[in-house]
Each structure stands twice: as C-alpha cells, then as structure tokens.
C-alpha cells in the first residue's frame, strides 16, 4: 500500500513538472494581453523564448515566484511596469561598440550623405543613447553635423530620460575611447565630455544634435521620411510576423535610395521586401533602398 502511495505522489509530481511549462506559457499570454490592454505596449508577438527568459530574469530581481503574481503587480503598480520595461528593452550597449560598422559607415555612407542638402537620421530603439551619441560624434567629425538631425526613439521612457541626460560612468570612458579610436576617431575623445563627480557629461553641443522621443515600433506609425535609419539588435526579439511588420514600417520611412542599418546578426534576406533593397555591406548589415 505504501508503494502505491509513493508511486502516486511521484506520478503527481511528474504531472506537475510536465504542466509547468504549459502553465507558464498561458500566464505569459495573459501578462502580455493585460499589459497591452492597460498600458498599450504590445509584446504579444515578441519571440517567446527570449521574452520568457527576460520575464524570468525580472521575476528573480523582484523576488516574484509566478508570472501571474508579476501580472498583478504590473497592472496595479506603474513603477513595477516601468522597471519591467527597462529590464525588457535595454540591451547591452556602449559607445562605438561595433567598430567595423562605424568604419564602414565612414567609408561607404558618409560620401553619399555629403550629396544631400539636409539629412534626417532615425535611430529606432536607441536604448540609453550610447550609439546615438557615437553617431553624433561621427557626423561632427565628418562635417555633416550642421545639416543633420538625429531622431532617437525608444519604447522605454526611463531609457530615453537617461539618454537625454548624456551622463555616463567615468569608469567606462577608457573602453569608449579605445572603441572610438578603432572606429576611426579623429580627435581626442575627452574633448566630447567633461569629467565631474565620477561621471562623464557629454558636451551640450552633442546633446543638442539629437531629438529624443518615445516611439513603439509595434504599434506606432512612421513620423517622417529619413535619409538613414538605424534599427540595430531590436528585431531579434520579435517573431517573424512582427519583423515583417517593422521592416515594412522602416521601408516606408526611408527616402529614395535611403540607407537601412541593422544589427550584425540581422538581415533583410528572406523578408517580403528584400528585393526592394541593394546590399551595400552584408557583413555589417547595411542596405540601400532601391527606389
């Protein structure tokens, strides 16, 4: 009789283990639906494996055991929602991080931009601004800053606020300086910031070149026509349907012969509009709109 009870308990435990991933999937569906209805942020078509991993990481930080408990906190506490957004949307980033891309941009795209009377650049998914300011420095050194406006957008208001401030820990400046020099920097990197209280404050001139705003690639439409669009390492978190939607949005936002720059692991290949682009540099995912 005892053996039967033990076996029953083991079977029940195994059933619960088998059910756990299914229940979590249901809870994540409900969480995404609740966030969409209450806050308007649509994560329902994000790549599930990546989304689930980030949700688990956030739950560990917040000491929350179940996704359903997380949903309760998010729907009833905006501060939790803001922290969740920050955890979900901010990627590992640094100034001039992708050295090869910036070198290629200088060599292949800058000469094209010199032919335009004015330039509008959209940095979609700007996070906390490191890559945006890298671009602002590059344009300044290539004598394009006076005719260029950079529009930097992100889904996360906290990230935008941090990006607007242009303040970074002083301890990362050595790494940023190394990246800058490898990316073809032409000045002393220290001329672009002021060191104060263990922080580096970027120059007001650089910050004035950028217009920061909240924008959701999933739910918002295009807001201008752009000469260049950076959308790097954003769509890796989307499923195929959502990527197609965003690719169409970016295509519609580019001017004729405009340039699209994706992350190094991203491409327009196998998308419905891949024939509408010319590959300028496949290694660094730089493409030109054909018409």
From TrEMBL:
Pfam families named in the record: CheR, CheR_N
Superkingdom of source: Bacteria
Domain (CheR-type methyltransferase) ranges: 16-268
SUPFAM superfamilies tied to this protein: Chemotaxis receptor methyltransferase CheR, N-terminal domain, S-adenosyl-L-methionine-dependent methyltransferases
InterPro entries documented for this protein: Bact_Chemotaxis_MeTrfase, CheR_C, CheR_MeTrfase, CheR_N, SAM-dependent_MTases_sf
PANTHER family attached to this UniProt entry: CHEMOTAXIS PROTEIN, CHEMOTAXIS PROTEIN METHYLTRANSFERASE
Protein name, as recorded: Protein-glutamate O-methyltransferase CheR
